Amino acid sequence: MGSHQDTLPTPVTAAGRDGLAALLDRPERAVIALDFDGTLAPIVPDPEQARAHPGAVPALAALAPLVGRIAVITGRPAEVAVRLGGFGGVPGLEHLVVLGHYGAERWDAVSGAVQSPPEDPGVTAARAELPGLLADLDAGEDRGSWIEEKGRAVAVHTRRAADPEALFAALRTPLAALATRHGLVLEPGRLVLELRPAGMDKGVALTDCLRESGAESVLYAGDDLGDLAAFAAVERLRGEGLPGLLVCSASAEVRELTDRADLAVDGPGGVVALLDALAGKVRGAR
Prior knowledge:
Strand order of the largest sheet: 5-4-3-2-1-10-11-12
Distance between the termini: 19 Å
Largest sheet: 8 strands, mixed
Radius of gyration: 19 Å
Strand content: 15-25%
Mean pLDDT: 93
């Protein structure tokens, strides 16, 4: 009747319903893991202008004390996600973990410290070549491409171009060749092409997080192609007996996750509503 407990949506798959039931049965042993851009924060043309949805931090702070762990898993540097998300120093979020650079970096709210390895030399070399490569392809800033420095990765955005999709398509092959030359992988996303070291993905980061925390269930929410590795990890772990719920922060730009998800919600606002509903349901069951 209008309460959070009444608004918890039902997953469309049996595996998703099992995952949600396990989470609600023992929330203190559940991990809630979420992507940042497109999931907790709306996608914007300039990544530095991204901010968490206004309801995200309050929803996370309400839910975090009720569950085993909340982890934000992002391709961004950890401290950038913390700054843009507004996660630092928030009561209730003392045990939040932000896994940046696909898990290569870790920020713990309890200490405020970032653990970070040295930069990959392949990223350093690719970063040095990128401006010249884009200029040679007549695809530099004047054509609407934009290079984002991500520390342990580097990305090229096309969202500002006159024809973003055409520029994105034109850059995929030359950037894939650049990645291969330097032992990197090319990760396509929503009008962005990211070059990063092999072996770094959200599936590895999520799996490590679940094992470390002794999780008995997991919810993972994402919106983009980079989240497919985390979806695959949850599917694999479900086969090994760990219940999981896959949530898609749906958009018109990416359809692949919607097809794999147990539950699709309407962008970051839908994710916030789901987190609020989960907190209400868990509190109501106590």
